[in-house]
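Trying the structure run again after the queue cleared.
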Amino acid sequence: MNAERKLLVAQLREHALIIGEVVLSSGATAQYYVDAKRATLRPAGFAAMAQLVAQYADRWGATAVGGLTMGADPVACAALAGGADVKAFFVRKESKAHGLQRRIEGPLLTADDRCLIVEDVVTTGSATLLAIEAVQEAGLQICGVVAILDRLAGGGEAIMAAAGAPYEALATIDDIYPERPDRE
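Done. Tokens:
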């Protein structure tokens, strides 16, 4: 595990892990929650995330980085801060009803762009799948998908299948909460 990943895992463990019953976006109930923004929107967590995401953008030849707005916003901006030579973009759940009525916000993307889809936390992958769908509907290519944390609930497999590209998580729930009660 490299230094940036070790730092990110430590920041997620210290600031993002919440023990207690919560309802996930999927509607399922869990005995813990990971609010990655609590760790990644702090200087140390952001810096580690920036370096790691920028490395994936470079490795996979990305020219644009983004995903579904809110979860992906800090991650896409971190790629820029980490020195990736990319355009950042945000995907809305639905096109705006006013203005330019865009679903994908940010610099204009073209068919030549290679999009790295990003997300903060993946459980079922539903938010990431919406972003993949929007990018594909816009005629853009996906070169890979990166999540800050994967809860290991099957979302990664669905994401990889939908994207037709590699999927990597910078950390998993095993890294930050290995003693959790639902661990198999």
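The chain has a mean pLDDT of 94. Worth checking whether this holds up in the mutant runs.
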